[in-house]
Structure formats: structure tokens, C-alpha cells
Amino acid sequence: MQQDQNIKGFTILELLVVITIVAIISAVAYPNFSDWRQDRELRAAMEKTATMLMSVNTLSQRGNYPFVQFRITPNGTSSTKFSSKGMDSTTLSTRLNNAQNIECDISSSSYWDNNQVDETTKSISTHISRDGAVCFSKDGSFFKSTGGLKGNLNIKIENRSSNQYFILCTTSNASKAGKCPIDQGGGLEKPAYLVEWTRFGNISKFKWSGNDWTRQN
Asked: Is the pTM above the cut of 0.90?
């Protein structure tokens, strides 16, 4: 009986103190967790899209599809679809032999022999507000861009000028301007990532530091 009397529970005051401490810790930790989660989602999207670009260029270099396309299709600022397509050597040769222009076409579903080499949709935004695409060929002779990626504004990356890129940012950042800003002056916020390419399909990845682009491995 004496043993039962020595067993005590928490008082109301003690419970209130514990609840208050937990609430304070949660309030401090949540913004950091939210930032970490957004950065993780954007980085995963950047890695996926960069891999898509590298993969479709590999197919071009190997001759599987000597002419390929990487396409970005924004859905407002709420999500973005990324896809890649390919044209086989027979179709490319036929078009060239018939003196047909080789276009980075985004309007015809029958233009490409493979309309879905790869495809993914992410709940993120980009710096373009309409469909855009970039196309590559094995020797770089048919390198071109169209739609939202044609006429990219020049930005500074590693003290040089570039207009071959796309930017990924959060939907909340993009909603302020209708798309991702391209620099600090336009209102670009962390986290944000950039994927850059060259005529011959060399792919580079960068992270926004708040005032500059930092190369990623």
C-alpha cells in the first residue's frame, strides 16, 4: 500500500511546461525543416532532368537517335513536365535527302519516331512560362532551341555569359512573378538550381547561393 502511494504522475504545471518546450522547439525547427525539404525536392528534380539531358545526348552520340529533343512544358507555376524524344537515322536521312528542314518541333506528335524516350512531371517551376525545347545531334550541326527556350536571356555563370540553360525554383518563388526569376535582381530566392548545356551535349549543374551560381558535382 505504501508503494502505491509513492507512485506520482505529472502535475498540470509540469505538463504545461513540457508542452511549451515542445512547441518552442517545433517553432524553431520547422522553418529549417521546410527549407531542407524544398531544397531536397528541387535538387532531386535537377538531378533527374540533368540525367535526362545526358541520357538523350548519349543516345544521339551512339547513333540510336542521331537527332534528339529535350522539352520543358510548364503547367502554370504549379508543376512542370520534362520529356525527351528521338528521331532515328532513317527518318533523318530521308528528310535530308528530300531537302526538308530539320526542326526542333514541339507542335507535331508525328514528327519524332520516339515521342517518349523519357518523361517526368515535378511539382516545381522553371524560368519559362510556355513550352520550350532544345535539340541536339551527334556532330552538333542541328543544335537549336525553340519556344520558351529560344532567346534565353544571357546570365552570368562563373564569370562568363550563357544563354543555354533552364532554372528550377519553388512554386512559391515563381508565383510572385509567374515564373522563376533568373537572378537576384528579379527576385530569385534560395533554393534554386540551374542546368546548363553546350552544343555538343555537355551538361553542367549549379545551385543558387543567393547572389551567384555555384557548380555542383
From this structure: no
Q: Per the domain annotation, does 21 fall within a domain? A: no
Q: How many domains does the chain have?
A: 1
Dihedral sign for Cα 22, 23, 27, 28, please. Answer: negative
Tell me the average pLDDT across 134-150.
Answer: 96
Q: Residue 30: which pLDDT band, with cuts at 50, 70 and 90? A: low
Count of beta carbons in the 10 Å neighbourhood of residue 22: 10
pLDDT at 8: 58
The answer to the question of residue 48 being in a domain is yes
Mean pLDDT of the region 52-78: 96
Task: Confirm whether 26 is domain-assigned.
Answer: no
Given its phi and psi angles, is residue 46 left (phi above 0), alpha (psi -120 to 50 degrees) or beta? Answer: alpha
Grid coordinates representing 40?
A: 531536397
- Give residue 160's identity as a one-letter amino acid code: R
Segment 10-19 mean pLDDT: 81
* Phi, psi dihedral angles at 27 (to 5 degrees): -65, -35
Q: Is residue 203 part of a domain?
A: yes
Instruction: For residues 28 and 30, give the distance between their C-alpha atoms in angstroms, rounded to a whole number.
Output: 6
Strands (E), the chain: 67-75, 79-87, 114-122, 125-126, 132-137, 144-147, 155-157, 160-162, 165-169, 192-197, 203-208, 213-216
Burial pattern 206-216, b for ≥16 Cβ within 10 A else e, equals bbbeeeebeee
